[in-house]
Structures are given as structure tokens and as C-alpha cells.
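User: C-alpha cells in, sequence out, please.
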């Protein structure tokens, strides 16, 4: 029998400071987060360890809220609170998710295919 990986036992209410709503604008699960600069901001020193972990995770590049939650092994809702705090402190930037592409007009694709075939 293979051992199951140990999961951190940090209740979501501890990571969120007991709050029920994050500050600032609402985040979606696919909101893209990225760190503001290479050096650790002074505002980060006043925040909890979970905030620092999220900021360290995002320093090399951008991740969505869902991906960051998976790396931190926290619920997505708790990660939204952490990200909102860091955006408010100026340590992170958040970008709205990329909208889904619209359905392409089939007749346009067919005309393009006919045009490509005539080039042969």
C-alpha cells in the first residue's frame, strides 16, 4: 500500500484571517496573478507567511488563482483572499482571464480552405 501524501492542515479561515469577503474587486478562478517586482516589497513584511508563500510562488512568472491554490495546497477561496490582500498592498498585479474565443464562421473557414487549395 502506497502512503498518501501529507496535506497541510491549515483551515481556510486561518489563511483568510476570519474574513468572509476579500477586499477590492472580485477575482475569478482564472484571474492571472503576477508579482510586481524582483525585490521583496516592504508591505510584504507586515503580512502573514501565507502571503509571502504566494508572492514567492508568483515571482518567477504568472499563474492563475486556481494554479496558485494548487501549489499552496489551499482552497481557491482562501487563495483569492491572499491575492486580494497582495494586490491591495501593491505586491501583485491581477489581470482578468482571457475571454473564450468566439465561434468561427464556418463559411469563412471554407472560403479560406478553397483559396489555399487554389494556390497549389
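Assistant: Sequence out:
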Amino acid at each position: 500500500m502506497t502512503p498518501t501524501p501529507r496535506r497541510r492542515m491549515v483551515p481556510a479561515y486561518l489563511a483568510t484571517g476570519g474574513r468572509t469577503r476579500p477586499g477590492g474587486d472580485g477575482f475569478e478562478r482564472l484571474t492571472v496573478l503576477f508579482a510586481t517586482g524582483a525585490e521583496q516589497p516592504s508591505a510584504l513584511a507586515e503580512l502573514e507567511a501565507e502571503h509571502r508563500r504566494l508572492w514567492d510562488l508568483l515571482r518567477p512568472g504568472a499563474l492563475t488563482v486556481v494554479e496558485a491554490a494548487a501549489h499552496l495546497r489551499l482552497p481557491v477561496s482562501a487563495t483569492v483572499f491572499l491575492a486580494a490582500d497582495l494586490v491591495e498592498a501593491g505586491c501583485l498585479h491581477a489581470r482578468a482571464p482571457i475571454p473564450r474565443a468566439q465561434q468561427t464562421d464556418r463559411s469563412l473557414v471554407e472560403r479560406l480552405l478553397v483559396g489555399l487549395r487554389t494556390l497549389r
